[in-house]
Amino acid sequence: MKKTALFKKHQELGAKMVPFAGYEMPVQYKGVNIEHQTVRDHVGMFDVSHMGEFILSGPNALDLIQKVSSNDAAKLFPGRAQYAYLPNENGGVVDDLIIYMIEEEKYMLVVNASNIEKDWNWISKHNDNAEMKNISDDMSLLAIQGPKAISLLQELTNENLNEISFYHFKTMNFAGLDDIIVSATGYTGSGGFELYVPNASAAEVWDKIMEIGPKYGLEPIGLAARDTLRLEMGYCLYGNDIDESTSPIQAGLGWVTKFTKSFINDDDIKLEKENGVSRKLIGFELLERGIPRKGYNIIDENGNTIGVVTSGTMGPSVKKSIGLGYVEADLAKPGSKIYLSIRNKSISAEVVKLPFYKR
Amino acid sequence: MNVPKDLKYTKDHEWVKIEDDIAIVGVTDFAQGELGDIVYVEVETVDEELDREEVFGTVEAVKTVSDLFMPISGEVIEFNESLEETPEKVNEDPYGKGWMIKIKITDSSELEDLLSPEDYESSIS
């Protein structure tokens, strides 16, 4: 089992550690509900160093990215990031990722921890002549998320963080260290930044943030709250809501699918987009007591299976049982009544517009 | 870890308090800590006669769902309905306000198979 550079910090803080994607990761410190609410109301810090980072560079880097990625990387400029996915050849998704343009002919791809090896092999397979470097084992990633994140982090840099818009980033001197990537991205819906820090400096950055954190209400946050926070926003999680067998169009990823260039399986995806899909990923709220879980069947009033739950939880901020799942397209409209099969009982639910949580 | 001396326990991390022919049942402090924040307790077996180790309900935490097992055979005579609105009582006070059901004991000889506080404590340490 791998450990992140911050493993000792989590132990000292009394975190409950669990194996996740080959790493021992903190799942919670004080409790998922309180951690979730801390991010919504104040600010929380996550160690998400298990995420993978690849550097693609050279004159052929952009061509390679355009071939494997769904989004149009030609729109990027240094300091700009974009969300995208890697389509496979069979109508599914290899992974979702963020692509950063570091400078001309140099990009950083940030991928899911559980897919690092698979993505590396996939991209390598399609690579003609770009330089590729896997820096996952050398790079730590801290997510500082919540409404107070900007004020807290501003104390540690002379750069004006207000000038970094959503999905933009800047490489800067931060906490006395050069070349830290400060990115206005996140997976919580509560604003904030993500910091890419070399492993050797990760503990120092963590400590400096923790030191000035108390006056902003900062707490360390585990992976359990990361999941409830993302789910309240309706963000897809790879392995749950999208995978090798799910259509990106059905999953609602059409907005990061750009036919301004050609990419793997683009003809099929384009056809699917034009013809409309038979199934759709929807958000739903339970109208009765119960908690939806991944794998539960979605049924109609007669008990016929019409879909499947891909993610579900009790939303700590929305205070409702919420979930994501696939249903037939004619039931995907907000307001549609569906049912969940929970322990052989039929529990009523309603399709709702995403996100569940609105600031 | 809090393991009160006046209770009996099961390997499924439930505690049992005997009051004459009634057994009060809940989950242990260890169990609530492992489950994390509990968001729903479902018991729909009130008035049913169940055997030892049959499922009498489920407890849902944010991340997991877990079955609740009868520590002894008997009739489920009461569910702590206050848990419907405030399931977090199981986290806050697992041996008190977080109790789950009362069972009318049918075979008191089964009580001898329950774990002592010492045995339970060594099983989780």
Radius of gyration of chain A: 21 Å
* CATH level 3 topology of the domain at 2-50 and 137-232 in chain A: Gyrase A, domain 2
For the record, give the distance between the C-alpha atoms at the N and C termini of chain A, rounded to a whole number.
38 Å
DSSP helix fraction of chain B: 10-25%
**Helix-strand pattern of chain A, N to C?**
EHEEHEEHEEEHEEHEEEHEHHEEEEEE
Low-confidence stretches of chain B: none
- Give the percentage of residues in beta strands of chain B: 35-45%
State the end-to-end distance of chain B: 9 Å
Overall number of strands of chain B: 9
Task: Characterize the biggest β-sheet of chain A.
Answer: 6 strands, mixed
- Biggest interface pair, residues each? A-B, 16 and 12 residues
Structural category of chain B is alpha+beta
Could you walk me through the main structural features you see in this protein, from its secondary elements to its overall organization?
The complex is a heterodimer of chains A (359) and B (125). Chain A has 359 residues and is an alpha+beta fold. Among the domains of chain A are: 2-50 and 137-232, 2-Layer Sandwich (Gyrase A, domain 2), CATH 3.30.1360.120; 278-352, Beta Barrel (Elongation Factor Tu (Ef-tu), domain 3), CATH 2.40.30.110. Chain A contains 8 helices and 20 strands. Chain A has a 6-stranded mixed sheet with strand order 11-12-13-10-4-14, sandwiched between helices. A 6-stranded antiparallel β-barrel of chain A has the order 15-18-17-16-19-20. In chain A, strands 6-7-8-5-9 form a 5-stranded antiparallel sheet. The model of chain A has no long low-confidence stretch (mean pLDDT 97). Chain B has 125 residues and is α+β, with helices and mostly antiparallel strands. Chain B has a single domain (8-108), classed as Beta Barrel (OB fold (Dihydrolipoamide Acetyltransferase, E2P)), CATH 2.40.50. Chain B has 4 helices and 9 strands; from the N terminus they run βββαβββββααβα. At the A-B interface, α7 of A face β4 of B.
